[in-house]
Design goal:
Layout (H helix, E strand, L loop, with lengths): L8 H11 L6 E6 L8 H14 L3 E6 L5 H9 L6 E4 L4 H10 L2 E4 L9 H7 L5 E3 L14 E2 L5 H13 L1 H18 L2 H16 L7
Parallel strand pairs: 1-2, 1-4, 2-3, 4-5, 5-6
């Protein structure tokens, strides 16, 4: 999985200004589609809970999906003033969203599959909070902060911890980069593909 360089302070300031976010906001990011199984609703719940003790909390949602369900929930929960919406239509837009964020949230309501948004967040040099369901099948080994459970309360506690402890966030971004190098480097994909092709032409004896 490719890694992007960390955003500089100037890039961070420009990203926030371009998105209309206050320079001193504590920005949580959800980047991905708005299908129900992704758990994007939980990201909004985390932002609402954190705002009770951290009033500078904002939720940035970067998506290519129809935003109407998002705005509807924001209005119903009284969180519309804390929500900023942006696009994922280009690599530039994706870089801007991550540059503006303090913490990336990766919830999920259904386990299984490869959590692309989790790998992308790790590759963007942004501290990540995820859940047991979202990380199922991956040996993350400290690459992100894993919430104790899959619920909003657990994610809120983990996100608050990262906002409070910036040094922890820096350590996690370093660990995330090392994880990608160890588990998702391009040469590993090439080797696995070559092994698969070779096995098709030279199958391993089954013993039968």
């Amino acid at each position: 999985w490719p890694r992007a360089p960390a955003a500089s302070p100037a890039q961070r300031a420009a990203a926030r200004a371009g998105l209309g976010l206050p320079s001193d906001a504590e920005v949580l990011l959800y980047a991905g589609n708005l299908d129900a199984y992704q758990g994007w609703q939980d990201a909004m719940g985390v932002a609402a809970r954190l705002a009770r003790s951290r009033p500078r909390t904002r939720l940035l949602v970067a998506t290519a999906s129809d935003p109407e369900p998002l705005w509807r929930l924001a209005r119903e929960s009284g969180q519309g003033h804390r929500l900023t919406l942006t696009t994922l239509a280009s690599e530039e837009a994706r870089r801007r969203a991550y540059a503006a964020a303090d913490v990336a949230l990766v919830p999920r309501r259904v386990a299984g599959g490869v959590p692309i948004k989790l790998l992308d967040a790790l590759g963007r040099q942004t501290p990540v909070v995820t859940t047991p369901r979202a990380s199922a099948g991956l040996s993350l080994a400290g690459a992100c902060l894993l919430a104790e459970d899959d619920d909003v309360c657990s994610m809120t506690h983990a996100a608050g911890r990262l906002l409070e402890d910036r040094e922890l966030g820096r350590r996690l971004t370093t660990s995330g980069s090392l994880y990608l190098e160890a588990k998702h480097a391009p040469h590993l994909f090439a080797e696995a593909l070559e092994h698969l092709i070779a096995s098709l032409f030279h199958p391993t004896p089954t013993g039968r």
